[in-house]
Amino acid sequence: MSWTSLQHDLAAHGYIASDDLAMALHLALALERPLLLEGAAGVGKTQVAKTLAEVKDARLIRLQCYEGLDATHAIYEWNYQRQLLAIRTAAEGGETGEAVEACIFSDRFLMRRPLLEAISQDSAPVLLIDEIDRADEEFEAYLLEILSDFTISIPEMGTVHATARPHVILTSNGTRDLSDALRRRCIYSYVEYPDRAAELAILAARHPALEPRLAAQIVGFVQALRREDLEKTPGVAETLDFAAALSGLGVNDLADDPVALQAALVTLLKTQADRAAIPTELAQRLAGKAA
Amino acid sequence: MMQVTRFPARATGPAERIAGFMAHLRMNGLAVGVGETAAALRALGVIDPTDAAQARSALKAVCASRAEDFARFDALFAAYWFNRDRQRERQERAQNEAREASRHAPGLSGERAALQSGTPERPDDDPDGAAAHQGEGRLVAARTRNIAGTDLREFVTPEDVAAAEAAAERLARAIRDRRSRRRRAAKRGAQLDLRRVARASIATGGEPLRLFRKARPERPAKLVAILDTSGSMTVYARVFLAFLKGLTAADTTTDAYLFHTRLVRITDALRDRDAMRAINRLSLLAQGFGGGTRIGSNLAAFNRGYARRLVGGRSVVMILSDGYDTDPPEVLGSELARLKRRGCRIVWLNPLKGWKDYAPVARGMAAALPHLDLFAAANTLDSLAALEPELARL
Q1: Strand, helix or coil at B349?
Q2: Residue B56's closest chain A neighbor by CA?
Q3: Residues 38-57 of A with CB under 8 A from B
Q4: Which residues touch B319 (CB under 8 Å, ≥6 apart)?
Q5: Is A67 within 8 Å of chain B by CB?
Q6: Which chain B residue lies closest to A71 (C-alpha atoms)?
Q7: Which of B105-114, B163-172, B341-350 holds the top average pLDDT?
Q8: 20 to 30 Å CA-CA from B312: which of A11, A179, B252, B319?
Q9: What's the pLDDT score for residue B124?
Q10: What is the distance between the alpha carbons of residues A17 and A39, in angstroms, rounded to a whole number?
Q11: Other Cβ atoms closer than 10 A to B40
Q12: At B289, is the secondary structure helix, strand, or coil?
């Protein structure tokens, strides 16, 4: 499969990828390396993984990272309570020693968390490790080990080797700098806000019912808004919400319905300061220009 | 400025050319090694390498590993494979060299003298005072970006470093290290909370079915230090840099920046374990060191960039500056207010405040005062050390 056909497949599933992104994804698949995506919030980093799973018809396994994420939540954990109960029943049944031990450290009592789940699939899944920058550095180091050889060793059971190598996609919002080691192991792409044409294509793919003229207005408006000095720049997800809100309100032309426009702005501006920064007149003017 | 590798005309196979390209990238500061070269060759194998746009995208995905590299890559690619920019580059270099020669021959000693005597109003790269002829006199000086790479080795004497670092580490502890030795019940934690487990086990007939854990409570504050290294602050710069090094050494989450005409993040450079390399990196970053002051717009850059991700309710932002600003004071006031809205606490350390009869009359300083949680002197190491109880109270 070439990178252009991958780009087409993604587009067929409603994801418009830039050339750079499609190429990076293609290489990540071809070279079997993880793909690291960075970029502002709301440019569609997570959506890449979801769409890739649809394209490949593979299972999507998602690991959402957060501060303090540890091995028991990312890799595996023993079901301690069930083990205890099993020991109790075994003791009443007269079983002892090694038989019990073999029983309680078996697959039945193992709770698989995303990473272990991902490497024990029969067909290659898409493993999405979301917001890796939120996890601690220790976890990042551990992740490196898994990403390089796709094996996990469980002391009580032995080493689990990947049956099918998962397609790994990592995303980062830059809350902290990632280690060079992790960066170097990955194929990298920086996802920008889409340009006018790309955003129009996204809108057309996601809201096919939308009138082309209104779609052009919406995109023009949002693109103008991104150039304003805002605390939270609206992303693609916000554009889609905005379009949905406008069509829900029955707006046909941005410029001649200031009330509806102001109401729909709640989908784009997410802080008090940003709302104050874009008063009705300014919104009108931007809409007028976009028209 | 981009360094351009001579195109290897004699290179024959693609492998050799790619190796040359990798060397070109490395020379321009990208972290690529043998592994990347191999990956690049494999990558070219799975695409159509005769299409330049494809090859560029592919090599970019493999070789760039951070946002800055990603943005620069296209230019680097064009420079190597198409010899683009070489012509312009060469001209520029010739011009630069001529300029450098005329500037540095008399300038080097003059520059140093200016730094040491602490006369910040004179542009350091303008020994004959040409800027004064432009009609704006002394202010022009402060707006000129000093591009000479001032060598920080001269600013850092071992005793000062040691003393400042020690004071800084104490301070950092006062602010940060309120980590308790006691452990509190927590959902996840390294230790079992035996007392709770035992008590809960009574309900299940003595079997400890539910496990409770305890962990050390989270540490409250994260420190962000912003150092003004403009002309008027150069006399303090060496000690403050050591101070910042102490702060970053005391904790892994401390963040440090310096600004003059623009804002630079220096956390990584300060944390470099190799002291000589750290100094080299700092000298590179500090280009403009001793230039003009633009506190307001630098804070604005900080607010729009780093602060969004790194400053929150648990942060203490420490600004080390004398408050002399060439931006309008309203900018500083509104940017501080904006920073404050992130929920952080702001500490301003002003070396001038230690002077007798000092009043914050500099207009920037006056505009900043209402937004500060603590405004303190910082002209001697003693005054820095005296901050400890104040900061612990914040």
Answers
A1: strand
A2: A20
A3: 38
A4: B226, B228, B346, B347, B348, B349
A5: no
A6: B188
A7: B341-350
A8: A179
A9: 40
A10: 14
A11: 25
A12: coil
**Inter-chain contact B309–A174, Cβ cutoff 8 Å?**
yes
Q: State what percent of residues in chain A have pLDDT above 70.
A: 98
Q: Decide: B394 and B316 in contact? Cβ < 8 Å.
A: yes
Higher-confidence position of B94 and B71: B71
Contact B46 A33 (CB under 8 A): no
Amino acid, res. B151: D
- B133 Cα to chain A: minimum distance (Å): 37
Residue of A70, A184, A193 to mutate, testing the B interface (most B Cβ within 10 Å of its Cβ): A184
CB contact under 8 A, B65 and A273: no
Distance CA A264, CA A280 (A): 12
Most confident listed range (A116-125, B97-106, B168-177, B303-312)? A116-125
B273 token code pair:
């374990």
A83 in contact with chain B, both atoms CB, cutoff 8 A? no
Say yes or no: ipTM exceeds 0.90.
no
Domain boundaries of chain A, sorted by first residue: 3-75+113-190, 196-290
Cβ distance of B47 and A180 shorter than 8 Å: no
Contact between chains at A2 and B268 (C-beta distance less than 8 A): no
Judged by CB atoms closer than 8 Å, whether chains meet at A20 and B211 is answered as: no
Write out pLDDT tens, residues B74-117. Answer: 888 888 888 755 444 444 444 454 444 444 443 333 333 333 33
Find out whether B290 and B316 touch, Cβ atoms under 8 Å.
Answer: no
**Cα B137 from Cα B143, distance rounded (Å):** 11
**Span A3-75+113-190 CATH architecture:** 3-Layer(aba) Sandwich (3.40)
Angle at A229 between CA A227 and CA A232, to 5 degrees: 95
C-alpha distance from A80 to closest chain B C-alpha (Å):
8
Strand A158-161 relative to strand A151-154, pairing: antiparallel
Residues facing B227 on adjacent strands:
B258, B320
> What do you get for the CA distance between the two ends of chain A, in Å?
41
Q: Is the pLDDT of residue B119 over 80?
A: no
pLDDT at A60 over 90: yes
For A19, the closest of B31, B57, B308 (CB atoms) is B57
CB-CB contact of A95 with A137 (8 Å): no
Interface contact A82, partner B, CB < 8 A? no
pLDDT band with cut points at 50, 70 and 90 for residue B163? low
CB contact under 8 A, A183 and B43: no
Report DSSP state, residue A178.
P
Determine whether A279 is exposed, middle or buried from the number of CB atoms within 10 Å of its CB (0-12, 13-18, 19+).
Answer: exposed
Contact B39 A183 (CB under 8 A): no
Whole-model pTM: value is 0.64
The confidence score (pLDDT) of residue B153 equals 39
Q: What are phi and psi of A231, to 5 degrees?
A: -75, -45
Structure tokens at A273: 């300061």
Q: In this structure, what DSSP letter does residue B6 have?
A: P
